[in-house]
Amino acid sequence: MTEKTLPAFYQKPRPIHAEQDANLALAETANYLFAASSNSVPLVAAEFTLACKHFPILFADGDKPLPVALLGLRSEENLFVDAEGKWQAGYVPAYVRRYPFIFMENADKSEYTLCIDEAAPGLVDDGERRLFNDGKPTELLDNALAFCRDYQGHHAFTSEFVEALAKAELLVDNRADVSLATGQKLSLAGFKVIDEAKFNQLPSEEFLRWRERGWLHLVYCHFISMSNWASLIDLTAEQGKN
User: Fold this and answer.
1) Which end of the chain is more exposed for a tag (fewer CB within 10 A), N or C?
2) Which pLDDT score, from 0 to 100, does residue 237 have?
3) Rounded to whole angstroms, how far apart are CA atoms 120 and 60?
4) Dist CA 48 CA 78 (whole Å)
């Protein structure tokens, strides 16, 4: 896998091995500085209910649109990570909490392997939060495996939801042009939103099918999340004063 295709945050992901990682541990004082330059992160559908209270939920443009939490109006700026690496919102997206662990597919995409980013700043030797004890996975590693497995399952459901949006032609290109009180103008493009008017015109049978699939709730969470644009603008202006 080349660097260009690596998921956000991950620089050197590799499979975890008991022998190689016998002394590997996570630092006691972990922080989120690794996410400080990401102005968006992927979301899975199960997070929409909590994420919509804090961030705009958008759909990153591409061959397969991806739901994301918008964290900043400028590229490489995350408004929710402070200088000490503390997260400044009431909810931390699962994609962020999963790091430095990740599931990665084999060549024929038939199975997943638990991997770790060996370039992660939070990795140490012989710390208290070890991955292995006497060659056996610790509770920390077992929890990481369960978290990644659960995340992967939610990712499949999320992909099905987004595919339904695309098939119904409900995703439309959008852009945000923001004027701060200082007079500075910012422009954000390359994302899609759900067309509310088109959504409201879904045939009754299709609407009921979406309800049965659990997709209606996700659409409404997306609409609710749009109210967070104002908070992002305020945060951008506030941090610009510091």
Assistant:
1) C
2) 84
3) 25
4) 19
